Amino acid sequence: MKNILHNLKLEQKKFGNVTIANMELFYEMCIDTTNCMETIILPDFLKSLVGIGTMFLKSACDEYGFNVGPFSKCIEKTKFDLTTLRNTTIGQEKPKCELSDGEFSELQKIIQEKCGDESVKDLVKNEDRVRLLSCNDNK
Known about the structure:
Layout: H1 4-15, H2 20-39, H3 44-67, H4 70-78, H5 85-88, H6 101-115, H7 117-125, H8 127-131, H9 133-136
Helix pairs in contact: 2-3, 4-7, 6-7
């Protein structure tokens, strides 16, 4: 399975000397920018337009934060392959790519054991994204 940070490293090659620290800094700056945008006092019409832009920016920031967050770092550090969960969970008849409840539960246990509470909290916070990670590998 393609690891998230591996994909970011491929992007890094395109743009030169980008490090994980740079990416984390970019994420923090992204959040600071959206927080700042929410405090700007504007007429209602402009405020609604800025609000829509802020919503899209926050979504991008959240995705980026997930990509450099504790769970993603854990997956990268341990070289864990999410497709191995398909072999450990019994009774799955759905041909869907997303992780089932049983597979997600198994993943939580594995991440807890290998990386601890912070990574598990990030996993749970980003459950929808995590459940679809094995779908990204099929593209």
